[in-house]
Amino acid sequence: MDVKETLSLFNYPGEKLETMGMVLDLATDLSREIAKHAKSWDEEEAQFRNGHVVLPNGMPEMLRKVSDAGLTGLYVPEEFGGADLPFTVYAGVVEILSKACPSLGVAFAVHGTAIDFIRELGTQKAKEKYLPKLASGEWWGAITFSEPESGSDLGSLKSYSEKRGNKYHLNGSKIFVTNGGVANVYTTLVLTDKEKGKKGGMGCFIIEKSSPGFKVVRIEEKMGLKASPTAQLAYDNCEIPEENLMGENGKGFSHTLGMLCGSRTCIGAQATGIAQAAYEKALKYSKERKQFGRPIAEFQAIQFKLADMAMKLDASRRMYLTAAYLKDHKSPHFPMASSEAKLFGSEASLRICEDAIQIHGGYGYIKEYDVERHYRDARVTTIYEGTSEVHRLIISKAAIDSAKS
User: Fold this and answer.
1) SS3 of 158, please?
2) What's the number of CA atoms in the CB half-sphere (13 Å) around residue 234?
3) What is the tally of structural domains in the chain?
4) Distance of alpha carbon 142 from its chain centroid, rounded?
5) Model's pTM, two decimal places?
6) Which of 99, 280, 290, 298 has its CA 20 to 30 A from that of 331?
7) Is 1 helix (H, G, I), strand (E, B) or coil?
8) What string of DSSP letters covers 300-359?
9) What is the Cα–Cα distance from 324 to 227, expressed in whole angstroms?
10) pLDDT single digits (tens) 183-242
11) Cα–Cα distances in Å, from 373 out to 102, 200, 350, 364, 367?
């Protein structure tokens, strides 16, 4: 079952489900054009030239087509220029775009997370200023949390802010920033009280790329997602207005942990999209490749691999869509479902891509065939937005606590 078919199983009114289906069809049509460029974008990679991030040839124009199609505003309220559709359909679009090109898919996913932060935590003034531009795709969003000494341990970050008059001044650095240098708006987490730290001493802020003191230092050379810029940023007395504080000052740590559940759900969707691409190529190859006088799809060893791949794909898709559905309905079960969807989806994707290479045999290791790229792209999904180990800790702790009560 594809995204549209799986979504039809959820309890949405018929009219809304029809609208969501039309959006998914639109994304699918766009994805066919995007897929034609994925290989060349991977080879060209995002570049850092003279202090500026340069995307591969044709990628900015394709991002504009995604915006012009209205996809960037799906999850933005109507009053701010969006379609105000469920988060579930946004996650579905992440899968579809990621199947075509996960570098573009993750740009779209992270953009949605920035929107989510501002939509849920931003001041009215910030919503009025930023959401219309993010909805239209005039501006793109990013999130910035990891630091050189703060990854899985988000509470150990060093970046800090000081308030002077009606302005905040931010200092520090952030690493592993997807869309870094391309995005115009960044949500970030910094210390507001060094003594209190994560227990009441952190704040979430919105930073503009044009803010004084904001600088893109470099972008990373990576194993996969090569067309997606992963940047290091520096805040040097970065000046932002007080209305760009999101939520309650001091509660930035808990705000961020809550909001990242949506981001994790989208990474589950991204991982599923990558896996779908690898599975389809493996299935096609197995029916065409002949050994011992017959297609290798007729051998039970290959059939069992394909069966496991199909099963994991269906499960991954249902898990991330279920998590998204729980978010839409403000369910207390959403945080756990998001961890499960991200953990299962990312590890399933990695195994599916590995099996796709194995089915291709020696050709799977050759760049002419796409499955090696799918494997490289899938690898990071088990790392960012919480490593597999972190999510196992989250899930096991919840299971143990539940057993005690």
Assistant:
1) coil
2) 8
3) 3
4) 10
5) 0.96
6) 99
7) coil
8) HHHHHHHHHHHHHHHHHHHHHHHHHHHHHTT-TTHHHHHHHHHHHHHHHHHHHHHHHHHH
9) 27
10) 999 999 999 999 999 899 999 999 999 999 999 999 999 999 999 999 999 999 999 999
11) 10, 43, 12, 10, 7
- For residue 265, CA distances in Å to 35, 291, 398 come to 23, 41, 18
The single-letter DSSP state of residue 202 is E
Length of the chain: 405
Which of 239, 280, 385, 389 is the catalytic position?
385
Domain boundary among 197, 222, 253: 253
Residue 383, both tokens: 């790392």
Q: Which residues contact 359 (CB under 8 A, 6 or more apart)?
A: 282, 285, 286, 296, 302, 305, 306
**What are the CA-CA distances from residue 210 to residues 50, 238, 239, 331, 334 (Å)?**
17, 10, 10, 37, 35
Element (H, E) at 299: none
Mark whether 133 and 160 lie in a shared domain. no
pLDDT at 405: 60
The yes-or-no answer on residue 385 being catalytic is: yes
Measure the CA–CA gap between 133 and 209, rounded to whole angstroms.
Answer: 14
pLDDT per residue over 72-131, tens digit each?
Answer: 999 999 999 999 999 999 999 999 999 999 999 999 999 999 999 999 999 999 999 999
DSSP class per residue in 63-96: HHHHHHTTGGGTTS-GGGTS----HHHHHHHHHH
- Spacing of C-alpha 373 from chain mean position: 18
CATH number of the domain residue 301 falls in: 1.20.140.10
Residue 148 domain boundaries: 143-253
Buried b (16+ CB within 10 A) or exposed e, 334-357: bbbbbbbbbbbbbbbbbbbbbbbb
